[in-house]
Design goal:
By secondary structure, the chain is mainly alpha-helical. It has 3 domains: about 220 residues, Clc chloride channel, CATH 1.10.3080; about 200 residues, Clc chloride channel (Orthogonal Bundle), CATH 1.10.3080.10; about 140 residues, CBS-domain (Roll), CATH 3.10.580. Helix content is about 65%, strand content about 5%. It is elongated and about 110 Å long. The two termini are about 45 Å apart.
Length: about 600
């Protein structure tokens, strides 16, 4: 016996080590490609920005005319009205002609692929997303790099999983690992990106915990590859900030969390309102909608050029205290409008950078306001800028954990973890189910990807007794019942299967409507046969203590919709009948109880 156990343990250990080695190899591979993809995407972004913002302007306005002003404004400023529209036109053509999935913010597409498409992504999507996003953002579109790089990394990983003929659960994990690798690299936030990819799938505080390790592996490798090319260091530089511990300061951060939730609600509603306007009310071809959105953005940027692009330079200015309070509060709502115009019209880009911008400006405004009202407190407006970045995105994206980690990694502001936690939590809770990512589901139990897992788990832990209604009356057929009487009883009954019993009331067979139909067509047999002749003698039964998985498996095997329920001590004593409808009803009741956190026992006979 000990020898057999030893062989079993050795075999199990070998299988487990092969699985671990496989995922390490896949994680490293996805990370390498995601890191290289981030380098390529960043290069294309810089090239696009240089072409649209510098080369195109120089080509359209020769140097001899650059000093010319029209209505008091330089010609270059007038030209900037049309450049985002040109980028939108190119992006719209690429996306809607070759890969419509690449429109909008790519993180939503990744989430949708995980939940509803088995982790599958068409091979052309990452390529089109890369080019379209570089054009959109490079031409001044108010969008970020998170969505595109998430879709680029996840797209490659999905294609690799398909080539390797991996099953759906594994392909979904590969999808997450690719997204984590791309985001971890381009934002230099490996831990935050791994958590983001597994947390952003759900609106409730849940993680896709099976994917955390593959995501961490991929993110670390991608981060290493990317930083070898671009250099180490955080994206934003911040002053030395002391940890916030004073109760009065923490109270101000709590109020700031409420403000973040309020502005976040406006942001999300306006964003999807603008999306619906472009989709339903604007009578323009989908290809041209991003150009219309770009033109509107250009008009807004004519007066507020700060809304163009991701706005990282302006965030840094807010951190450095170089922006006026009035300008920052104006930019909060201007950025909401510009992002909604860019992405809501179908432009290709992410919402992470715009959300950071909105949170930073909101934090900078609030920090200066608090400093002027409470000069006796040693407040630092830069701290509110950083906390605003993380707290605002935590609420609108439903990622309270990943958001604070990512901001800490991007800025090095680990001393602000406590106020970040306060603002993120309050913003997250107050916004409820409202999210910038509409493809999120509430929890794992609501995900089509996990439907089978929960179905099996529920059916294995609920018994037949729980599923049978207490008031059910079962109609039985005596063995000696004539066919004409049998036919009349079948017609008048709502049952589809009828237990056949002997004179002592003990189960001897079962008949279905199909059995009756076979005899019904031959009228010569009507006076010759009785119920016993029509019934099937071999009966599949269940007992009240059997689980519903067993009952459903037997129904499938017998190709019936109902089964007799018998006494476990006396298999010929009929107790009741259970149907597929009973199982489905109880399954959905249990699903609802799990959603609401109810722990009550299933309703059934006692």
């Amino acid at each position: 016996m000990e020898i057999r156990l030893g062989k079993y343990r050795q075999s199990f250990s070998t299988v487990r080590m092969k699985s671990i080695g496989r995922w390490i190899f896949l994680g490293i591979t996805v990370g390498l490609v995601s890191g290289l993809g981030a380098i390529l995407f960043n290069f294309l972004l810089q090239s696009g920005n240089r072409f649209f913002m510098t080369d195109l302007v120089a080509f359209a306005i020769p140097e001899a005319y650059r000093a010319v002003r029209l209505l008091g404004f330089p010609l270059a400023q007038w030209l900037m009205i049309f450049i985002p529209a040109l980028g939108g036109l190119i992006s719209g053509f690429l996306v809607y002609r070759f890969a419509p999935e690449a429109e909008g913010h790519g993180t939503d597409a990744m989430i949708d692929s995980f939940h509803r498409k088995g982790g599958a992504v068409r091979p052309r999507v990452p390529l089109i997303k890369t080019i379209a996003s570089a054009v959109t953002i490079g031409s001044g579109g108010s969008a970020g790099k998170e969505g595109p790089i998430a879709q680029i990394g996840s797209g490659f990983a999905s294609v690799l999983a398909t080539v390797l003929k991996m099953d759906e659960p594994s392909r979904r994990l590969m999808l997450l690992a690719g997204a984590a690798g791309g985001i971890g690299a381009i934002f230099k936030a490996p831990l935050g990106a791994a958590l983001f990819a597994t947390e952003v799938l759900y609106r409730q505080p849940e993680f896709e915990f099976e994917g955390i390790i593959p995501c961490i592996l991929s993110s670390i490798v991608a981060f290493t590859v990317y930083t070898l090319y671009t250099g180490y260091g955080t994206i934003f530089s911040i002053p030395n900030l002391a940890p916030v511990t004073a109760p009065a300061e923490l109270l101000l951060y709590g109020i700031f969390g409420i403000l973040c939730a309020a502005v976040g609600y406006v942001y999300i509603r306006f964003f999807y309102g603008m999306r619906d306007f472009f989709a339903d009310r604007l009578r323009v071809s989908r290809i041209y909608r991003p150009a219309v959105g770009g033109l509107a953005l250009g008009i807004l940027a004519f007066f507020l050029p700060e809304v163009l692009g991701g706005g990282y330079d302006w965030i840094q200015s807010a951190i450095d205290g170089k922006m006026a309070m009035r300008l920052m509060v104006i930019l909060v709502f201007a950025k909401i409008a510009s992002t909604s115009l860019t992405i809501g019209s179908g432009g290709s880009g992410g919402v992470f950078a715009p959300s950071l911008f909105i949170g930073a400006m909101l934090g900078g405004f609030y920090g200066l306001l608090c400093t002027s009202i409470f000069p006796q407190l040693s407040l630092h407006p830069s701290a509110f800028v950083l906390v605003g970045m993380g707290g605002f995105f935590a609420g609108v994206a439903k990622v309270p954990i990943a958001s604070l980690i990512m901001v800490a990694e991007m800025t090095g502001g680990y001393s602000l973890i406590v106020p970040l936690m306060i603002v993120s939590t309050i913003s997250y809770l107050l916004l409820g189910d409202v999210s910038i990512y509409e493809k999120q589901v509430s929890a794992r139990i609501d995900s089509p990807a996990h439907l089978g897992d929960f179905a099996v788990d529920i059916l294995e832990h609920v018994t037949v007794k729980d599923a049978i209604p207490t008031d059910r009356e079962v109609e039985t057929i005596p063995e000696s019942c004539s066919f004409d009487t049998l036919l009349q009883r079948v017609v008048e009954s709502t049952q589809s299967n009828f237990p056949v019993v002997n004179a002592d009331g003990r189960l001897t067979g079962i008949l279905s409507i199909s059995d009756v139909r076979r005899v019904m067509l031959n009228k010569d047999l009507h006076n010759l046969v009785v119920a016993k002749d029509v019934a099937t003698g071999t009966v599949l039964t269940v007992t009240p203590v059997d689980d519903l998985k067993t009952a459903l498996r037997k129904m499938t095997k017998a190709e019936v919709r109902e089964l007799p329920v018998v006494d476990p001590e006396d298999p010929e004593r009929l107790i009741s009948m259970i149907s597929r409808k009973d199982i489905i009803r109880l399954y959905y009741e249990q699903i609802e109880k799990m959603k609401t956190g109810s722990t009550a026992s299933p309703a059934g006979p006692t």
